[in-house]
Amino acid sequence: MKVDSDTFLRPQAACSFTPGGLRTYAARRETIKNYNPHSIRVFPPAAFQHLRDNLRIPMSERVSDEQRQSPGPGFARLVEIMARLRAPGGCPWDREQNFDTIKPYLLEETYEVMDAIDARDWDGLADELGDLLLQAVFFAQMASEEGRFDIADSLLAINSKLVRRHPHVFADGDAKTSGDVLRRWDEIKVTEKESKGEPPPKGLLAGVPRSLPALVEAQKIAAKAAGAGFDWENIEQVFDKLREELAEIDAARATGSPAEIEDEIGDLLFVVVNIARFLKVDPEQALRKTNSKFRRRFSHVEEGLAAHGKTPQQASIDEMEALWRAAKHSEV
Questions:
Q1: Distance CA 63, CA 36 (A)
Q2: Which of 29, 70, 250, 270 is most buried, judged by most C-beta within 10 A?
């Protein structure tokens, strides 16, 4: 049996690029020592099976010390592989993609990175960061094909930006606290835009993208406003505002107006984001962790009911509450 390398990398084969399948195919190719896609055209069956069975083994065991590379050559290799996949005779799926079709994968891979961090899955995080890195290389490759820019331009841009915006490290700037650093970052950013002839943003909050997740957007615009002095004096005033918003929700419920209730719920959530800001808690991450906790505890409830031949729909609330409390107690 012979397996063509291009066939192996197509979505219908083992290396799937369907949603959830954008794995680190660079590592898959590199697993076979000295593999060169321009000269070697056949995978031995044993190697094919080895790749299918070992894509999630610990990163520390995936390659030998001799196979390890410094980041520079490894990154150049990824760029080369992406160019090969997009070239005539490359992978049909990769060649069909455009900026819009790849966007969903960028978001998916970002959240998979976050999931790996939350789970403290370091082997998984190494994989997921590779997948996320692939997205940047994919977008840059498509831009290069259109004569817009290439990945070298992106690397130059971020390297230059980091040096420019850290004058306290790379020049004679002064920043004693993280707050000083953030203020200086924003000042330099404004200066850079002015030097490019870009019109100033229409308002302090204009620089915060509306495309952000709602909790993240709320956190950023509240912080921007607070930085300009539009803020409560202390957290007790924020809790007073929380109680005020709860009362307004009760009033909205009395009117029965869905639009008014929605508006007041939004106000309540915004106040909660500000409480998190005062307590230096990231509300998005806090909610993600709570979601994970709920999933874990509810799974315990389902398993407990299943042991007695029941589903949640067949159980009483008392039965489920008892299992929930047991799950909560086991985490203490």
A1: 16
A2: 29
